[in-house]
Amino acid sequence: MENNPSVMRMKIIMLGDSGVGKSSLLSRYLTGTLEKTGSTIAVSYGEKNMAIDNAEIQLKILDIAGNERFRSIMSSDYRDSHGVVIVYDVTDVDTFRRVENWLKEVRRIESKPVVIIVGNKIDQVNRRVPRSEGLQYSKDKGVLFMETSVLLGSGIGHIFEKLVRKILQERVSEGREQGSPLRNMIPSCSCM
Question: Which tens digits make up the pLDDT trace of 88-106?
Fold first, then answer.
């Protein structure tokens, strides 16, 4: 798939506070298993191929460290991103409140990526952020929303499928514009 010119390549970045489960979510999505992960230092990434409506898509997913001291270094990784996954922990209200800060950073990205906000750890009994609150916040901000449990593996693939479908829906026609980072995402075939 790497050298196939009809493959759409998308860059997805994952943001959120340290400890919300971004690395575990990425690991679960890429391998299908739950692996013990520590805090990300700077950036880690993985790649995964998927097919949506007969389109071959190669995702490059960057897991950006949630620690404040790495943020200024990592802003260059935001460039040319097509989608953003902002993760918070439903058992920690502060991580949900800081979604606003992450969203402000995303709004500064020139490529105007599609955003999905993800509430993680829904398997925990000490939930502090109701689903309705996350859903309403996302609607108010005009972004996608989902909840998941990385531990149980519920809905992991749907997060990325929903995001990619929205990118395709909103951006494919824009991608043909000169200078758009999405132009490289679009295959050169006349399959549109």
Answer: 999 999 999 999 999 998 9
